[in-house]
Amino acid sequence: MSGESEGGRAMSAAEVGPGAVIAADALLARGAVIGAGAMIGAGASIGAGAMIGAGASIGAGAVIGVNAVLHGATELGERCVIEAGAVLGKRPRLRAASSAPREELGPLVLEAGVTVCCGAVVYAGAHIAAGTILGDQCQVRERTVIGPESVVGRASSIDFSTRIGTRVLIQTAVYVTGGSIVEDDVFIGPGVLSTNDNTMGRHRRGGPLSGPTFRRACRVGAGAVLVPGVVIGEEAFVAAGALVTGDVGEREVVMGIPARVVRRVSDEDLIERWR
After folding, report:
1. What pLDDT shows up at residue 7?
2. How far apart are CA 66 and CA 77, in angstroms?
3. pLDDT at residue 2, as a whole number
4. What's the rounded mean pLDDT across residues 144-166?
5. What is the domain class of 1-91+107-155 according to CATH?
6. What is the pLDDT of residue 32?
7. Is residue 92 classed as helix, strand or coil in its secondary structure?
8. In this predicted model, what pLDDT tens digit does every residue of 258-270 receive, in sequence order?
9. First to last CA, the chain
């Protein structure tokens, strides 16, 4: 970082709050708003109409698209790309009976090279590791952690307090319910739905919820539905459209309504053969 609020190119076209620290070679487009105390790194580019909240930190070489909103205390690593209309650092609005945790949230942290595509919403308190891509119009809730080199597809929703590992592929329009665990190298196909509440809301406030667990390198096909608390075993395969009502063992192939074991995943189909 270098310079105070007078730094940056095209500064006269942007609104800059007191105490903002802007690198001399940062590019601020017309109509951009930089909040008090924000930090803009070397070579960063802030698009027209973008809003950078008070205290936000933008790493070197980051690109912030037109009309993107980064709320205060958001931390972006180097070379992140935030596309048009994305919203980062949003605070949740919880109903009185919500089971979501209510403790104070930390900052939203995006490590180096993360891409957040058009219209995506990423909440405060989440942590997105290096090289991950969050697709158009997806939602990532508070306290979620996503590991490096993972992908969340268009219009998918990752609910609160979910843990997602490395190289996970989550396709279009998937719902990963709150409290889920998704280990490394998991594939979740388009339209998969997971659930975490057997009572469907008829439990005491703050009562325990039980999202599914996806063990390493398991695969879940398009449109499958998972009931609360099920475990999909390591290298297991859930066929498209299956209704999973019980645990799926390691390397088991299941299909149907309800899902039944039909065979085992062969050695030739293990992930180590396909890296």
Report:
1. 60
2. 19
3. 36
4. 98
5. mainly beta
6. 97
7. coil
8. 999 999 999 999 9
9. 39
Distant-in-sequence, close-in-space partners of 81: CB < 8 Å, separation ≥ 6:
62, 63, 65, 114, 115, 116
> How far, in Å, CA of 100 to CA of 117, rounded?
26
The pLDDT of residue 8: 60
| Beta carbons of 220 and 232 less than 8 angstroms apart | yes
Entry field: residues in the chain: 275
Query: Which residues fall within 8 angstroms of residue 165, CB to CB, at 6 or more apart?
Result: 147, 150, 182, 183, 184, 185, 186, 216
Share of the chain above pLDDT 70, in %: 95
CA separation for the pair 66, 46 (Å, rounded): 8
pTM of the model: 0.93
Q: What is the DSSP letter of 105?
A: P
3-class secondary-structure state, position 272? helix
The DSSP bridge pattern shows strands 139-140 and 109-110 to be unpaired
Buried b (16+ CB within 10 A) or exposed e, 151-163: bbbbbbbbbbbbb
Nearest 5°: the CA angle 80, 82, 87 is 130
Strand partners, 157: 139, 175
| Lookup result for tokens 């396909």 | 274
Superfamily the domain 177-198+210-275 falls into: Hexapeptide repeat proteins (2.160.10.10)
Best CA proximity match to 107, nearest among 122, 121, 85, 120: 122
| Confidence at residue 202, expressed as pLDDT on a 0 to 100 scale | 84
Q: Which of 78, 17, 73, 86 is nearest to 47 (CA)?
A: 86
CATH 2.160.10.10 residue spans of the chain = 1-91+107-155, 177-198+210-275
